[in-house]
Design goal:
Layout lengths: L2 H6 L10 E13 L2 H13 L5 E14 L2 E15 L3 H11 L8 E9 H10 L4
Antiparallel strand pairs: 1-3, 1-4, 2-3
Length: 127
């Protein structure tokens, strides 16, 4: 049974708060401006590559860049999508992100509520 079947299946108990395994991801990146974060979110949402985008910030980031310890004010973007759409999401972020080497990190959504994962599935362009 695929995650799409699980997320939308009537075969599983209809218990309030019941969770299911998923094949969804949360992808994160950061931008130097809120406008850049909003631009990425709009691009990915309008193309239905992500179902949800959260912009958090400003946050303080500390990192090594070209041999120097840096500190920057950034906006963190969290995108909810399907594993099957990861490559397309990454491609769009890379094509439209102003950073030379943007952070693009994906973590699996191990479990989630049946209702939320069903909604997430319905919002995505899974073709």
């Amino acid at each position: 049974m695929s995650v799409r079947d699980v997320a939308c299946s009537d075969a599983l108990p209809q218990l309030s708060g019941a969770s299911v395994m998923s094949d969804f991801l949360q992808i994160s990146t950061t931008t130097s401006t809120c406008a850049d974060a909003e631009g990425l979110a709009t691009l990915l949402l309008e193309s239905r590559l992500v179902a949800c985008a959260q912009i958090i910030g400003p946050v303080t980031s500390r990192y090594w860049w070209q041999g120097t310890l840096e500190t920057a004010t950034e906006w963190q973007c969290l995108f909810k999508t399907s594993r099957q759409l990861y490559v397309l999401v990454e491609t769009q972020i890379l094509a439209h992100h102003p950073y030379e080497t943007p952070e693009i990190i994906s973590v699996p959504v191990v479990e989630g509520s049946r209702e939320y994962l069903g909604w997430l599935h319905q919002q995505l362009n899974l073709g």
